[in-house]
Structure formats: structure tokens, C-alpha cells
Write a structure and sequence with these properties.
By secondary structure, the protein is α/β, with parallel strands linked by helices. The protein contains 9 helices and 12 strands. Helix content is 32%, strand content 18%. Helix 4 packs parallel to helix 7, helix 5 packs across helix 7 and helix 6 packs across helix 7.
Amino acid sequence: MAEIKQKAPIVFAAYGETEEELNYLYCLAESIREFGGNVKDAPLWIFVPEHINIPVDSIIGRFGSIRNVEIKLSQTPPDALAFYFAGKVFAAGKAEKLAADKAEILVWMDSDTILLTEPGDFILPDSIAFAYRPVMHNRSGTLFNEPPNRFWKRIYEVLEIDEKTLFPMITPADNQEIKTYFNAGLIAIRPEFGILGKWGKDFEKLYRDSALIEMCHADITNRIFLHQTALVGAVLNTIDRSQMIELSDRYNYPIFFDIMFGADQPFDSLNNVVTLRYDYYFRNPEPNWEDKLIGDKEIIGWIKSRLEVGKQDK
């Protein structure tokens, strides 16, 4: 009889296509190994585009000192490349397909993410297929008690989303109650449900729709976030709400989001944070930014040593 291989409890995966993103991913890998607790040895799959202009052998080499990291290639349809973040959508679908017989849980993360402590909530209950955080702020969503704007109305039509399945969520940065809109930068899933594969198929429907193409040309915000809107249909048309869980605000915590984009509250405390998002902050951080941050000084020092510009060359 053939030996039945046991699935890994969890696999982490992320996507990068630039030197900056690969440097960030190195920090993500280090953080998992340093702070991941019971999942610190979990596999990390790093996806890069098939035609990346950085030699793949050099990418493999730079991660060689970190155990259990694999570099994998992904493909993006050529007509998707005009839209922001298209590469990560299709890489996520490939990660899910590969994980289907290898992992109980797949955690898909953006490159600007690090772990600060063991992410216990990623080990989902048996009844849960999808764990999420809401979008950070209401830059491109719709208030829950208002009708959808023209952009979202067309998304619901193209993806055949029954508006009765929409539910409210609160944006962390500006505390607005919006219609269902998942943050595409941190997702924990059971891969057998095929949510991330459907994400790519739904994204294709959206970016090939003539009405949405027109709206994306007229408003860059629509073009930036079109990939993220596709995730709404992929989730709502695949599983019931009872199979979803919202992660606490300890996950996907957006450090200094108020400084970068504006917010109703400061995001300057690392106390109890599990996963941290920093966007572009460390390209040009404020002088002595570490003195403005609340939390464990050793962890703050760890972040400073790895993320400040000029200290990322691996």
C-alpha cells in the first residue's frame, strides 16, 4: 500500500515581484522562525512571477539560510497586468491548489507583514473555512445602510452576488460600518474549498467587463482595488457566513497607518499584536520612530534592525 502522507497543520504563503518585496519577504520569513511559536517551523512558500527580472537562482540563494522556505513560480494572464496587484491574485490560487493535499490551513499574507508572536487563531476550528480581517478603511467600500454605488452595483451583477448575503463589518482605521469587504492582505483558509482559485476566476470576470474597465480608467482607486473586490464574490458564493470567522484586531495591525493614510486613532502600540502590517512606512520612516512606538523594546529593536531602509540587502 502507498504511504499516506499527513498534511502539515499550516503553510504560509506570500507573493513578491520586486527587490523591495523580496526584502520584505525575507523579514517575514525571519519573523515566522523567530516568533512563530508552535508554527515557527511551518513551510513558507514564496511565489514570484514566471518572468521576474531577478534571476530565480539568486532568489533561492538569498533565502537559503532560512529553513523550510520554497520559491515557486506563478503565472499572471497578460490582460490582467494593467490592474494593480493582479500577480498576487493568481499566485494565491496556485498556492491554494498546491496546498490542497499538503496542508490543513493555508495562510496567505502580503509581503509587508511580519509575525510578532504565535498566531494561534490561524489554526481554524473544523467548522471554519475562511478567516479574515476587514479592509483597513472605507476608501473604496460602501456604507452598509446605503445602496451600492455604480461601481459596486456592477461588481454584484457581474459576480452574481446576492446582496442578501452581504453582512456588515467595521473598518479598523475609520470605524465605518461597510458592506462585506475582505482585506486581501491576510487570509487563512482551508484550501479544499477552492476560494482563492475562484478569486482569480472572479477577478478575470471583473477586469474583462467593459463597464468596469471604463470605471477603472476614470478612477484610479477602482483600478487599485478591483482585485480586492473580486474576493467578496469568491467567498460569498462559495461558503456560508457560518463557515467564516473575523480575526481579532491583533491580526493585520497597521502600524503608523494614521501617519500614512489618516485614521480615527493612532496605530502606535505593539502590545498584543500578532501580525503587523507596515505598508510603505519604512521606505522613509520618521527620525526616531521607535521612540514613538509602544511595546517590547527587544521586538522594536528587531524591527528596526531589519526594516529600516539601508538594512534590507540580503
